[in-house]
Amino acid sequence: MADLRSNFIGIKSPNPFWLASAPPTDKEVNVRRAFQAGWGGVVWKTLGSEGPPVVNVNGPRYGVVYGADRRVLGINNIELITDRPLEVNLREIKSVKRDYPDRALIISLMVPCDEDSWKAILKQVEDTGADGVELNFGCPHGMAERGMGSAVGQVPEYIEMVTRWVKQHSRMPCIVKLTPNITDVRKPAEAAMRGGADAVSLINTVNSITSVDLDLFSPQPTIDGKGSHGGYCGPAVKPIALNMVAEIARNPATYGLPISGIGGITTWRDAAEFMALGSGTVQVCTAAMTYGFKIVQEMISGLREYLDDKDIAMTDLIGRAVPNVTDWQYLNLNYTTKAVIDQDACIKCGRCYAACEDTSHQAIAMGPGRVFSVKEEECVACNLCLDVCPVENCITMRELAVGEIDARTGRPVRPYANWTTHPNNPMAQAAE
Ligand SMILES: Cc1cc2nc3c(=O)[nH]c(=O)nc-3n(C[C@H](O)[C@H](O)[C@H](O)COP(=O)(O)O)c2cc1C
Questions:
Q1: Which residue has the higher pLDDT, 6 or 80?
Q2: Is the confidence at residue 267, as pLDDT, over 70?
Q3: What residue ranges are annotated as transmembrane (predicted)?
Q4: Which of 14, 213, 261, 307 could bond to 2 as cystine, CB 3.0-4.6 Å?
């Protein structure tokens, strides 16, 4: 059976599945139950320094986007960092770590941007025996307005400065958690590395308004007639997170910087995708909030089975897809496919026809009896028919071999050529 034990920047855990810093990790009772359910690690909900208390709203904290079956696709939250007293959290962390020495226990931190505040809290966290710290430079609401969270994460110089303080004043491994609310995520990751971070984690939540109440004319969640932007997470943000993880994993400037992947992970498959793009561990929040702690058991058995079927070690999965992430100009422009409709599977709904006829390349014909067929001479292989078809595998794409005649161009399919070498590229011609 595949070995899922993980050693991430020296932090050991029995599996790579960690709970992200959020309500599921806000207190001892939750974290103990999470560990009992099988989570390999936990990032404790963000602690702040002593000072003005953190005050949350007393109305709804969440706005939700549902799929057609009322499945939760995304959650927007306007919650702040922990509002529980620091000393209570520290006492609980110590007690949990004592009883679960084999699990990863990372403490998320967010304190004002001055060296003394960081120095003070690091000492207190170190005394708990926790395995490491995660610097929360990502929360986009509430704390950002006070110069913390994403207000730091959006300025690479601040990231570098604070990370350096943390490494100077603590022996603990340091993970820098990045905000996605930025143009180029490589820059904050580079700054974290310059500051001495042992790893980065991403993504924190995406700035968002999930919906507007059309009677109150206020964003939801609505607090006494008004709303504010919040942080979006859950399956809807997974594609954004995967891209950002890949951008960092393949950036030569941060090559080898360990990554803890976060964002919409709900199944073992999601986790495996993050790992293939370079994540050494993964963190989960929304899936646990939606389905409970035991969801980790499916993740563990699914990942194990996948690795066994593939006959690869988990360490071989990590980063395995990174060399295949490239820039558009390096894609093979001579790779040619054509849509094929399985007439036995077709339910004659006509979605492929409507989509192709109205919005794409008029490459699907509708014959008598609503028989749909592909006009290969028009098909550009855009995939839209397959994407909108409600029957899985009813439409597939057939790859043309090199030398086979493409009915659309009337020419044989040529061997590999990307845009940098393509004959239609004037720059390529000039270079010849
Ligand atoms: C209600 C809520 C509170 C959160 N609080 C924190 C927090 O205190 N610190 C932090 O770093 N991230 C916080 N997050 C962000 C999560 O840790 C995680 O980065 C994000 O939810 C994406 O993961 P997911 O798609 O699995 O939910 C919070 C998320 C939610 C939904």
A1: 6
A2: yes
A3: none
A4: 307
Q: Does ligand 1 come within 6 angstroms of the Cβ of 177?
A: yes
The dihedral formed by the CA atoms of 380, 383, 388 and 392, expressed in degrees to the nearest 10:
130
Taking the centre of ligand 1 as the mean of its atom positions, its distance from the CA of residue 263, in whole angstroms, is 9
CB 86 within 8 A of CB 127: no
**What pLDDT, in 10s, does the model give residues 64-73?**
999 999 999 9
Mean pLDDT of 221-242: 94
Nearest CA, atom 18, ligand 1:
204
Distance from residue 428's CA to the centre of ligand 1 (Å): 46
pLDDT at 331: 96
Nearest residue (CA) to ligand 1, atom 19? 204
pLDDT tens, position by position, 134-168: 999 977 666 666 677 777 889 999 999 999 999 99
Pocket of ligand 1 contains residue 237 by CB under 6 Å: yes
Active site residue 139: yes
CATH topology of domain 333-416: Alpha-Beta Plaits (3.30.70)
pTM check: above 0.85? yes
Q: What is the pLDDT of residue 430?
A: 67
- Residue 84: which residues within 8 A CB-CB, separation 6 or more? 26, 27
Angle subtended at Cα 332 by Cα 331 and Cα 336, rounded to the nearest 5 degrees: 125
The one catalytic residue in 139, 174, 352, 356 is 139
Residue 23 near ligand 1, beta carbon < 6 Å: yes
Residue 233 CB–ligand 1 contact under 6 Å: yes
Mutate to test the pocket of ligand 1, among 61, 205, 245, 295 (most ligand atoms within 8 A of CB): 205
Binned at pLDDT 50, 70 and 90, residue 428 comes out as confident
Please answer whether residues 401 and 360 qualify as being in contact, where contact means their C-beta atoms are separated by less than 8 angstroms. Answer: no
Can you point out the beta strands (E) in 60-188?
62-66, 72-77, 104-109, 132-136, 174-177
Answer yes or no: is the C-beta of 364 below 6 A from any ligand 1 atom: no
The whole-chain average pLDDT of the chain stands at 95
Of the CATH numbers 3.20.20.70, 3.30.70.3550, 3.90.180.10, 3.10.20.90, which one belongs to the domain with range 6-324? 3.20.20.70
Given this model, what pLDDT does residue 151 score?
79
Type and span of the H or E element at 18: strand 17-19
